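Thread: quick sanity check before group meeting

JM: Hey all, I'm pulling together slides for Thursday and realized we never actually wrote out the predicted structure for the chain we discussed last week. Dropping the sequence here so it's in one place. If anyone has concerns about the input, flag it before I start.
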Amino acid sequence: MKILLFGASGAVGNATLREALDRGHEVTAVARKPDRIGIVSSKMQCVPLDLLNQPDAAINLAAGHDVLISALRPSEGREADLVPLTGAVLDAARAHGIPALITGGAALLKLADGSGHTVLSAPGFLPAEVRPIAEACAAQDALLEKEREAYWTCLRPPAMLLESERRGHYELGTDTLVTDAEGHSQISYADFAVAMVDLAEAPQSPRRRLTAGWRAPAQTPQPA
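JM (edit): ok, ran it. Output follows.
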């Protein structure tokens, strides 16, 4: 499979790049500063691109690829850029009829406590410093809601993304945070990447929102 990956130098993008290459896929890795990607592979082509200032370039790059993956995250203070960046990826997907996998945010996922609150609406749930990117992710979701032509899937992380091991397992959800037996909503970047590449390899249903997180494995009953 030929994958066009935007945001390849970021934490999610870099983990997704490694996972895709490990599975033998060919990846065009796009980053504003490709020297920060830190991966060398004969199956990878690096493309330097400031997508915010060259949005139409994504359309040209997309030709010949099987799937687009966006792991784009703006820098602090530029969170609102997430919407036009996502728009540029959707434009490319629409132009070539290629499915797009979009990294979303947990902002509009419901808490698992049954309160009906979302990550963004729950009082005191979000630290003040992460509210700007959460609000940008909510605006990104509104953009996706209006998109009726491009085939997109939005994969939203749990409450916490961790620099931790690749366990090789996760559970998908839809509109509620996936939690483990202790009530923690988390996953490693490596396993979030596993979920992303699994979705890239699967037949795509158009315009759906998913989330992924670690769920405690079921305990095997012990013989009496």
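AS: nice. Strands lie at 2-6, 26-31, 44-48, 67-70, 100-103, 152-156, 160-162, 171-173, 186-188, 208-213. The chain has five helices and ten strands.
JM: adding both to the slides.
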